[in-house]
């Protein structure tokens, strides 16, 4: 980052090593600071798009990310009637969500390198088509084995938005505004499962559990048609320092077909490992670990334990369970974003202003301090309230507080990591998704038994303490993150994205 900043300051006076003509006018943001990254002069460059086209594209990709956890979790409130119908236990019924979560975490490891070569749009269209077929197959399946197999493909078919969606945000938005728009994306990611809890509960109660498969199939199909005609390609190749375009001009129509990407190289099998190569960078591995645990506690924990906890303690039906979990976390997430994206961008601006126009991604991490306290506090509140069987509003309030804290953490982590390694944003998005999904799917196996063996208060508090301890990694990055990045240098791949 420091090396890039120095080169940005000297653009108007020198040529680069390759002999590129000097830039006479450095493109600046509204505060007079150099834009990062520097956009090309091509109006088809996503960085130069009209703000409404950017926002429309953001909403489409964010909704794709929303549909992942939404469709995977839509059935969660209907475990009991499904289990009774198929003569299995409720624990066995939960495996259909588990297998979808796992495959949604693993699949983007393949989508990421393909999208860096052939574009984001083909991946979104192709993967969503798999999702439509998989949801329909789950709804039509007559055996438990058939449902499990279909749900595995549901995970694959809803993984693209969750896995590489953040890369699209980085494709379109500059560093100084990335917190706000990354926050919008992460709100959708988090709330998919929350909204599913409400909608799925009423669906199972009023028209039957099989419609918990058919309704997501219909929604994904309608969204696929919208994406087919309205989702543009955002992958663009430019010089990482000068912003000079490195690809031929393309028409607006090409952006909405499958010819909008100038293929610079062939896909190699080795490209699949790029996601894991990123783990050698402290600015990637430490936030990924912290975020993965935080997301599990602030969102998934409530989804996978809510049916058992609220059903046994408060005797809620499926609709009531869905509302208790979904509404509290939905409201908490929305309120949390008010102190996440805009605050993150403001903190970065104040740092940049006080340091001669040179930003430092680690400045964003200062905005995560409230999340350190609020997220674990909400988890503990819910656990203690469940343990002492307080009024149901107690654990509901705890879930909302935890979701509030999670959103503060999540937005800043996504923005920070893509600020550090913007060309590798697809790998970063995939890695965050992999960590989130991998940890989350395990919670359903041990949290209720853990609470039974101890108490809800003890079990929930243990996880909250672990989450708080892992924040030490974020503190280390505030202190030495820039030094570590400069010492290791940037990754050698995908530098022109």
Structural summary, described in words:
The chain has 497 residues and is mainly α. Helix content is 70%, strand content 0%. Helix 15 (318-338) packs across helix 18. Residues 9-24 have low confidence and may be disordered.
Task: Indicate the topology.
Elements: H1 2-9, H2 51-73, H3 79-86, H4 90-93, H5 95-106, H6 108-118, H7 120-140, H8 144-157, H9 160-172, H10 178-207, H11 211-230, H12 252-255, H13 274-277, H14 282-313, H15 318-338, H16 341-354, H17 369-387, H18 393-420, H19 425-453, H20 456-470, H21 472-488
Helix pairs in contact: 2-5, 2-9, 2-10, 2-11, 5-8, 5-19, 6-7, 6-9, 6-19, 7-8, 7-9, 7-11, 9-10, 9-19, 10-14, 10-15, 10-16, 10-18, 14-15, 14-17, 14-18, 14-19, 14-20, 14-21, 15-18, 17-18, 17-20, 19-20
What are its keywords?
70% helix; mainly alpha; 497 residues
Please outline the major beta sheet: none
H/I helix tally = 21
Query: Any idea what the shape is?
Result: globular
Helix content: 55-70%
Quaternary state of this entry equals single chain
> Which residues form runs of ≥5 with pLDDT under 50?
9-24
Q: Which class of secondary structure composition applies to the elements?
A: mainly alpha
Q: What is the total tally of β strands?
A: 0
Order of helical and strand elements: HHHHHHHHHHHHHHHHHHHHH
Q: Using the CA coordinates, give the radius of gyration.
A: 23 Å
- Average pLDDT over all residues: 91
- Strand content bin: under 5%
